[in-house]
Amino acid sequence: MSTAIAIVGAAGRMGRMLVDAVEHDAAAHLAAAVDRAGGEAVGRDAGELAGRGRLGVTVGDDPAAAAAAGDVVIDFSLPEATEAVAAACAAAGRPLVLGTTGLGEAQRSAVAGLAERTAVVHAANYSTGVTLLTALVEQAARAIGAHSDVEVIEAHHRHKVDAPSGTALRLGEAVADTLGRDLAECAVYGREGRTGERDRETIGFETIRAGDIVGEHTVLFAGDGERVELTHKASSRGTFAAGAVRAAHWAAAQPPGLYDMRDVLGLGG
Ligand code: NAD
Q: Where does NAD(+) bind (predicted)?
């Protein structure tokens, strides 16, 4: 049976990759595509926007209609869309695969509310490599984190609107949780001026925004006399799109709950 997929943010960089990934998947098809109301993509063919030729799916601006048309919704858009998308999924009883980063409190609580009614996969990064990186970072934190200065360094393209990246924050959280620290209290975002000496309990974040970098993350554990650097580099957005489509197939068969990519890959907590 083919999984019908509705894509929110279909005209964006990720949205177009997702249309392509869905159409490459013999077990899935594009059921609906949505983008920002009033945007120039609305009314155009989603396949043509993605450079795949006409698919007969017109980009709309109503998440409720899209959710009703699909078995699963995949949303890689902007936080402004999240609450309406969560409400649409709740009304139609559809699982949601959410890739949007930079969510605020209201959006996170809308996602948590939806997860009580349907399966929600929310991952800051849908690549298999970053999912593995997170597990390795936790292992390193357990072994040497307490005796190291930990810094998270990330680089992305010039169009990215939030910083640090959702993945960088997730990696910092993984270190903080493993070491029994609260990231909200120990995070230091960038440094400037007379900062004073570094406090070992802090976790530092450094952000680079330049050119067309798809996404790079390094977690640095620096002690006295040596350091360990764990790095992941994405070279194509296709890796996130393929992971999200895999998550959509998985979510379609799950009971309500909030899941992440580790659950999808069967890597456990
Ligand atoms: P983009 O700016 O190229 O695309 C965003 C799209 O969403 C645009 O087409 C825009 O018109 C549309 N949009 C804006 N408001 C909307 C609304 N209210 N309703 C419907 N559509 C709306 O951005 P992008 O590079 O494709 O990234 C999109 C999101 O995905 C960002 O939050 C980014 O950080 C995130 N992202 C996540 C992963 C991951 O693996 N989780 C990977 C890459 C990007």
A: 9-14, 35, 99-101, 123-126
